[in-house]
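RECORD CONTENTS
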Amino acid sequence: MMRLLNLTERQHSPKRVSIRRICTLGRRRLLVAWLAIGITVAGTSWSSAADPDAAFDVQIDQGRVYSILGDLELKCDVYQPARGIDATEEKRPVVVLIHGGAWTSGSRRTMSGFAMRLARGGIVAVTIDYRLAPRWKFPAQVDDVRQAMNWVNEQADQLGVDPLRMGLFGYSAGGHLACMIGTLVDETLATQATASCWAADDPRFTQLIKPLAICAGSPPCDLTQIPASSGGLAYFLGGTPAELPEAYLAASPLTHASAGDSPTLFIHGNKDAIVPIRNSRSLFTAQRAAGVDSEYVTIDNQGHLLTFINPQTSDAMIRFFQSRLTSPFDEPVNLDNQQPLGGE
């Protein structure tokens, strides 16, 4: 189903949650927190007339199926700048958006505000659903993001996008999945298979295109720091760190950091008690040490949920992708909120 949104319409902005407190808060309290997020999102809107990036009306194609797994259909929504794209027009960059929710809850719809912002700025946005724990455990979620990327590549002509200018944006659990893709995509097939249900010789691996840029909001990047006896993430990883140490290693983006990682913008609130800021700083530091042109934005005095809906987050995200996915590609983005790596 398609609908056209005029720039004078009001749109909803998003929200999110994730790790350390997964081990202490309990999943029920997290789900309550995510319900509160949904209520807040539903009541939060911005005027597109005030959006400095609002150059386009937006056309939304809802409920596209990007993967079929038995009786399960995984769906996405495609947000396109409404100026028509035909064979004579330059293909647009595209960003795949991955929702949060502690890998157990959430929906592609919670990323609609960010998707609207991207599409108004001339970037095609694809928000995706993925399989959720505890029914589906890691690494099913990573494979779903991979499949969504391959779907965008396969549908590139129909979508009017240039898959070589693809980015990923995720927040919280979604940020973790984005970082998993960004750190694994340059690794050997054997290493990628440690975080996949696909066999190492599965042709879908060879179809993957390395994301040109990744934006990760408040991502848990090092799951190996969880106490060995803790079962807080067993619903996602299948056991405790003592029982399945290899799973916690494979599921930690920090494990896979290397010089070939996709350049990543990390956004994190310095008052985050759910995913402490040192999580993303650890991966940022490792990538910079390896020579990756990653960037870091700290949102002052904001926790996990408030950082998600803070306008600084969407501002930094849109500027980063407009800088990295549109020409010129090699100019560093100038972010007003960027802060040097330092204390927490």
Observations:
- The chain is about 30% helix and 20% strand.
- The mean pLDDT is 84.
